[in-house]
Specification:
Layout lengths: L6 E6 L7 H14 L3 E5 L2 H7 L2 E3 L27 H13 L4 E6 L1 H14 L2 E6 L15 H22 L1 E7 L6 H10 L3 E3 L7 H13 L5 E6 L7 H11 L4 E6 L11 H19 L5 E6 L2 E6 H6 L6 H10 L2
Parallel strand pairs: 1-2, 1-4, 4-5, 5-10, 6-8, 6-9, 7-8
Antiparallel strand pairs: 2-3, 10-11
Helix pairs in contact: 1-9, 2-3, 5-6, 6-11
Bound molecules: adenosine-5'-diphosphate, 1,6-di-O-phosphono-beta-D-fructofuranose and magnesium ion (MG).
1,6-di-O-phosphono-beta-D-fructofuranose binds next to loops.
Length: about 325
C-alpha cells in the first residue's frame, strides 16, 4: 500500500539559478494547497546534515517570485557524498517528521538524491534548476533563459565597442560541461563562431572563419567561448589568434558569475511555477526518484538515472542555422 507524504521538505543545491525562488514558492504554495506540511532546508544538503529546517507557510514565500538566487541558499556538500553524512541527514528528516523531499538543482544534486533515496527508501523528486540546461528529460532547465538573456545583454554592449574599434572579442560564457548557453547566445548575438564542448572546432576552422569575415568586410567580430570547451583556455585561444593575425585587435571578456544573477525572465518564472507544482503533485501520486521536466510543453517525470546519465543534446539545427547566418 502506497504511503503518501504528509510533510514535504524542499532544498536548493549546486549552482544557484534565477528562478529557484519561484520554484520554492510553487512547491510551498502547492503543498499548502493540498493540505500538506512543508519545510524549507537551508544550505542544500549541508542543511539536511545540520538539521537547519524551517516550517514554511504560503506567506513565507511572498515577494520572492521575482528575485534571483535562492532564499534557502545553496551549497556544494562534501559531507553528503559520504554514507555518514547521508545517515545524519536521514535521521534529521525522520526526527522532524518529514517523509518526502524535493531537490531543486542539477545533475550532481540528483545523483546525490538518487543515492539517498535508495539507501533509506525515502521519497524524492527533483526539479531541474541550473543555468547550464544540461539535463536530459526537460527541454529547458530553470535559470537557462535568464542566464542567456543576461549574456546577450552583455554581448550586445561588447558589440558596440567592438564595432567602434573594429575589434575581435572572445567572450567566455558559463557551461562547465555543455555549450547550451554558448550556442544560444551566439545565435542571438550574431557571433562569428562558437567554441563549445559539443563541437570539435579546430584552429584551422577558426582561422578560416576569421579570414572569411575579413574578405566579407566584417570588421567587428564576436566569438563565443563556452567555459568547458575542448580547444583550451580562452586566453590560450586568444594568444593563438593573435599570433596568426597580428594586425587584429583581439580582446577577451569573461562574463562569469553575473550570468547566474538577476531577476528571472517570464519564461523562467512560468517554468519554475509549473515544475514546482508538478513536483508536489508527483509526490502525491507516489512518484519517486524522478525529475519533473517539461518536454514539448508537457510535464513529464524522468527517472533520476536517465536524467543524470543520458546526455541532453544540443539541437544540431541551431548549429546549422548559426553557420548560415554568420556568412
Ligand atoms: N555522487 C554523489 N553522491 C552524493 N552526493 C552527491 C554526488 N554528486 C553530487 N552530490 C551532491 O550534490 C551537490 C551538488 O552537485 P553539483 O554537481 O555541485 O551541482 P549541480 O546539482 O548543480 O550539478 C554536491 O555538492 C554534493 O553534495
Ligand atoms: O559557482 P561556482 O561554484 O564557481 O560554479 C561554477 C559552475 O556553476 C555553473 O554555473 C552551473 O553548474 P551546476 O548547475 O552544475 O552547478 C557552471 O556553468 C559553472 O561552471
Ligand atoms: Mg551540474
Amino acid at each position: 500500500m502506497l504511503k503518501l507524504p504528509s510533510h514535504i521538505a524542499v532544498l536548493t543545491s549546486g549552482g544557484d539559478a534565477p528562478g529557484m525562488n519561484a520554484a520554492i514558492r510553487a512547491v510551498v504554495r502547492s503543498a499548502v494547497y493540498y493540505g500538506k506540511k512543508v519545510s524549507g532546508v537551508y544550505n542544500g544538503y549541508e542543511g539536511l546534515i545540520d538539521g537547519t529546517f524551517e516550517e514554511l507557510d504560503s506567506r513565507s514565500v511572498k515577494y520572492i517570485l521575482n528575485h534571483g538566487g535562492t532564499f534557502l541558499k545553496s551549497a556544494r556538500s562534501q559531507r553528503f557524498r559520504t554514507p555518514e553524512g547521508r545517515k545524519q541527514a536521514h535521521e534529521n528528516l525522520v526526527k522532524a517528521g518529514i517523509d518526502a523531499l524535493i531537490v531543486i538543482g542539477g545533475d550532481g544534486s540528483f545523483t546525490g538524491a538518487k543515492i539517498f533515496s535508495e539507501e533509506f527508501d525515502f521519497q524524492v523528486i527533483g526539479v531541474p534548476g541550473t543555468i547550464d540546461n544540461d539535463l536530459y528529460g526537460t527541454d529547458f532547465t530553470i535559470g537557462f533563459d535568464t542566464a542567456t538573456n543576461t549574456a546577450i545583454e552583455c554581448i550586445d554592449k561588447i558589440r558596440d565597442t567592438a564595432s567602434s574599434h573594429d575589434r575581435l572579442f572572445l567572450v567566455e560564457v558559463m557551461g562547465r560541461d555543455s555549450g547550451f548557453i554558448a550556442l544560444r547566445s551566439a545565435i542571438a548575438a550574431g557571433a562569428l563562431e562558437v567554441i563549445m564542448p559539443e563541437n570539435s572546432i579546430t584552429y584551422d576552422q577558426l582561422y578560416q572563419a576569421i579570414e572569411r569575415a575579413g574578405q566579407n568586410k566584417k570588421f567587428s567580430n564576436i566569438i563565443v567561448v563556452a567555459e568547458g570547451n575542448k580547444l583550451g583556455n580562452i586566453f590560450e585561444i586568444a594568444d593563438h589568434l593573435k599570433a596568426k593575425f597580428p594586425h587584429l585587435d583581439i580582446k577577451v571578456t569573461i562574463l562569469g558569475h553575473l550570468q547566474r544573477g538577476g531577476s528571472p525572465t517570464v519564461f523562467d518564472r512560468v517554468l519554475a511555477s509549473k515544475l514546482g507544482v508538478a513536483a508536489v503533485e508527483g509526490l502525491l501520486i507516489g512518484r519517486n526518484k524522478v525529475m519533473a521536466g517539461v518536454m514539448h510543453n508537457q510535464v513529464i517525470y524522468t527517472p533520476f538515472e536517465e536524467a543524470i546519465t543520458r546526455r541532453a543534446y544540443i539541437n544540431p539545427e541551431l548549429i546549422r542555422i548559426n553557420k548560415i547566418l554568420t556568412i
